[in-house]
Amino acid sequence: MVITKENIDELNAVVKVQVSPNDYNEKVEQALKSYQKKASMPGFRPGKVPSSLVRKMYGKSVLAEEVNKLLSDSLYKYIQDNKLDVLGNPLPKDDNNQIDFENQQEFEFQFDMALAPQFNLELNSKLKFSEYKVQIEDKLIDGYISDMTRRYGKIVPTDSASDGDLIYGDFVELDEKGEVVAGGIYKSSTMFLDTPVKEEHKVLIGAKAEGKYDLTAKQISDNTKDLAGKLGLEQQQAEGLNATFRFTVKTINRLLPAEQNAELFEKIYGPGVVNSTEEFRLKISDELGTMFSRDTEQRLHNDIKGDLLNKTDLSLPDAFLKRWLVYANEKPVTPEQVENEYPIYARQLRWQLIENKLIRDNNITVGPDEANEHVKNILKGNFAKYGRNPAEVSDEELTGTAKRVLEKEEEAKKVFEELYAIKLMELYRSKLTITPTEVAYEEFLKGAEK
Which among 247, 341, 354, 427 is placed 20 to 30 Å from 154, CA to CA? Predict the structure, then answer.
């Protein structure tokens, strides 16, 4: 077998594979003997069909199958042996369709190959970024406490509806004259009055049991899925619904927030952890800081990613990759679909190439022991989250569970990707100029949306 590569340009090449009988004869003969042992034909005992008949029946398909296996294995070995950095897999050229397995013995196959771009990339202190940290202001703490006290509050019946109340009642469809539609839509459901109450729901403020209110479908809900649920319809039926409904109030419930006292503190954090409202606020401030630190790091990562993508001169073999996406996709896709989605794919691929280069150039590695410890730490956090003291979990149990997690290919891949991401962030922090910058929560959100 002879394999040669001809570079078309820096990103594309054509690989030619010449195959002769010496390359495939042995495998073909072995395959035909295997077929002969299993062959069943009228007039012959099983396994006793003459080899000439087996060759006549299966020879062409066996030859094609064995040559294709040989091509696949040889191309993979050629790429590995020559340390070629390729994108996707080689694609057969159209000329390969003219191969005649019936009459040819010598074959030449041609494949298009995409080569990964070579590019320069240096991280240094001239690259400057802001690490936006959210100021933990009193209004953030107040909002968090409000959510917490409502979560641990209790529901009580009330006589008159106000914002924040949940109203239960009956919806019945009306005609243009305001009369009940015979056989029309009828459903018992709920209406929640937001805080502050929406304009379209203000008619229900002050509502009392057995009160009747005519509401349009739009007033009931401007969300099709939610409207369908409230009226017992399929989502398609709720789309464009232009009917009016009479809502008869049956009960009104109000959520009373829990008081900030020792009982609440113990329910949330356990005994003795928080003993006063001052400690409660400090605890919540710490929790918000931890929560926002993850958002802060994600935004920093996104800013670095965007900057490096914009500044790195990195071209791709676009025409090849579009063909490869059609060829390699598990589900049938059209060239038009690929064309529409290609910009997103190309951006992801360019970023993957940048990350891979940074990993190689900076000798970043992740070993099995690191992966095992990472999973064990995640497990400890999960135990704590669900009320089990991590200190009470034996190392044997943690190690066994971590081993089972890492035996699953997808889970292991996720763990290694997380560790590489952590080490890359450490690299950015050591090489780039990153300045901590405090911002208000609203300003942080605006920046994150860009």
Answer: 247
Q: Please give the pLDDT value at position 152.
A: 92
Can you spell out the DSSP letters for 92-144?
E-GGGGG--TTT-SSEEEEEEEEEPPP------TTSEEEEEEE---HHHHHHH
| Position 332, amino acid | P
The reported pLDDT for the residue numbered 295 is: 92
Contact criterion met (CB below 8 Å) for 300 and 127: no
For 211, which DSSP code? -
Q: Which has more confidence, 34 or 187?
A: 187
Burial bucket for residue 24 (CB in 10 Å: 0-12, 13-18, 19+): buried
Could you tell me which residues come within 8 angstroms of residue 366 by beta carbon, excluding any fewer than 6 positions away?
A: 416, 419, 420, 423
Distance from C-alpha of 327 to C-alpha of 93, rounded to nearest angstrom? 12
> In the chain, what is the straight-line distance between the N-terminal and C-terminal CA atoms, in Å?
55
Q: What values do phi and psi take at 371, rounded to 5?
A: -60, -40
CA distance 253 to 192: 10
Render pLDDT for 344-366 as a digit per residue (tens, 0 to 9): 999 999 999 999 999 999 999 99
CB atoms within 10 A of CB 187: 14
Over the stretch 32-90, which tens digit does the pLDDT of each residue have?
888 888 777 777 877 778 888 888 888 888 898 999 999 999 999 999 999 999 999 99
Strand spans (E) along 26-93:
86-92
* pTM over cut 0.85: no
